[in-house]
Amino acid sequence: MTDKPVIVAALYHFARLDTYRELQKPLAELCCKAGLKGTLLLASEGINGTVAGPRAGIDAMLAFLRARPELAGLEHKESFADTMPFYRLKVRLKKEIVTMGVPGTDPTRIVGTYVAPEDWNDLITDPDTIVVDTRNDYEVKIGTFENAVNPETATFREFPDWVRRNENALRGKKIAMFCTGGIRCEKATAFVKSLGHDDVFHLKGGILKYLETVPEAQSAWRGECFVFDERVSVGQGLAQGTHRLCRACGAPLSPEDLRSPDYRAGVQCGHCAGTMSEADRARFEERQRQVELARERGTRHIGDGSQPGDR
């Protein structure tokens, strides 16, 4: 049990979902009535997203989705927050629920071997295993597994090209891949196996399930895990992390980054200082002024990225 009032549910499921367009409106209406906020993506290949809200609302949404035969096997992961980590609800139609851009990649036909969090350490410490972080570079920088390879991708669309460039290094090895919640690895392992690699594995439930399941004393994770909501990052046990977002460039900022002389709340950070136009900087400064005015009124502006205890 937890005393935190907001449930954060991360979910995805690959399935042939021919009626995904017709599902958009009733799903959005149900989530709205249930007091949920966040983003859900629907495509012909399935559903993906993260939403937050009260216990009853989350349960109602999950029951609605699992009542459809195609989504009966949908799994989700839960974490908790003191305050709502999203500003609005979005239910969107997409070509892919996670965009890799390789037509024909279908995790319902071919996929890597799932490895439970409690068995992950044994696999990644095997000298014959290459451990690959399938996330984007800005995510990897704030935390990853010991000795994991960083493909240094800006988007997931770049991952297939990285694999092709490194075919010789990967050939004949055990390939262990991981991502935040597991969805990117579904497509990553499907793609890698389609190239003829046999020993392909991925972390079941992703980093989030590992941090929730594996005790800190036994953890091979180093740093924090970036999450796509206002919490920014989580640590062991899915506790709130220490990172904040730069409201100008979107980079996750460590406590050290926040102490940089280049950092100006809401306006710039050390990563983007000097890269913005005068018009952009003026726009960010006005937004920050509105944030501060809202605080004075005892309300919260949509551009306010502060966390409890920041003020």
TrEMBL record:
Catalytic activity: uridine(34) in tRNA + AH2 + O2 = 5-hydroxyuridine(34) in tRNA + A + H2O
Keywords: Oxidoreductase, Transferase, tRNA processing
Region entry Disordered, spans: 283-311
Domain Rhodanese, chain residue ranges per copy: 125-219
An example Gene Ontology molecular-function term: transferase activity
Cited Pfam families: Rhodanese (PF00581), UPF0176_N (PF17773)
CDD domains in the record: RHOD_YceA
EC number from the UniProt entry: 1.14.-.-
InterPro entries: Rhodanese-like_dom (IPR001763), Rhodanese-like_dom_sf (IPR036873), TrhO (IPR020936), TRHO_N (IPR040503)
GO term, biological process aspect, one: tRNA modification
Family per similarity comment: Belongs to the TrhO family.
Protein function: Catalyzes oxygen-dependent 5-hydroxyuridine (ho5U) modification at position 34 in tRNAs.
Protein name: tRNA uridine(34) hydroxylase
Organism: Oceaniradius stylonematis
